[in-house]
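lol ok so funny story. i was supposed to be doing the assay writeup but got distracted and ended up predicting the structure for this chain instead. priorities right. anyway since i did it might as well share w the group, maybe its usefull for someone
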Amino acid sequence: MNVASTPAPPSTGPRWLYLHGFASGPESAKGVALAGHYARQGIHLERLNLRQPSLEYLSLSAMMRTVRDAIGGERDRAILFGSSLGGLTACRVAEEDARVCALVLLAPALRSPEQMRRNVGEQGLRQWEATGWLETTDYAEKRKARVHAGLLHDIDTIDSRSGGWPDVRVPTLLIHGRQDTTTLLSYSRTWAHGKRHVRLVEVDDGHELVSSLGLIASLADDFLRPFLVTGDGTVGPR
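and the output, tada:
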């Protein structure tokens, strides 16, 4: 089962999908809060399970396939919310799949191999490569876990397709905390620079962005207003 909640009934508007981050899950605080926020507006934000094929053997390629499958058929469209590694996944799907019409990125893990290597350190990286496993915390299940080294190689391969930076052409709202030490703000600044279709909003928060949930919801509301389904079944401002 790739989703945490029952898919919404068909509508004329795009599907709204939430993509959680590394070692997290569909019940993440941000995902649940944003789903509740949009449910009160009559919008179904579907929280995908991106622990694919499992956390232990996590694969960006498998995560991307899960997102593409959740978008639906050839004529379906989707808005993707992506947090951290889920943000990178959203970018990588958007650059290859024309069914994605907008992105809301929360501290996306851009140039993820560089950021992961910095986070684990040289010694941790050598151990990861030598043993094949990275010891980590499973935040969804509140336990110790491990992740196979194949994840890093898979991300490296996908990143090499576009020189390391996702080639996203759709309207994008990017929100990043100035105190984030997990996915550095400098990467988001570099990627957003000069892109008229990308709006970068910097907030006084850390990687989890839990103190900024109200602001995130408000910013996303304004940004996504053109994609809301109106009472007559068309897409446009309410």
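The helical segments are 29-39, 60-71, 85-96, 112-131, 150-159, 185-192, 213-224. Residues 230-234 have pLDDT under 50 and may be disordered.
back to the writeup now i swear
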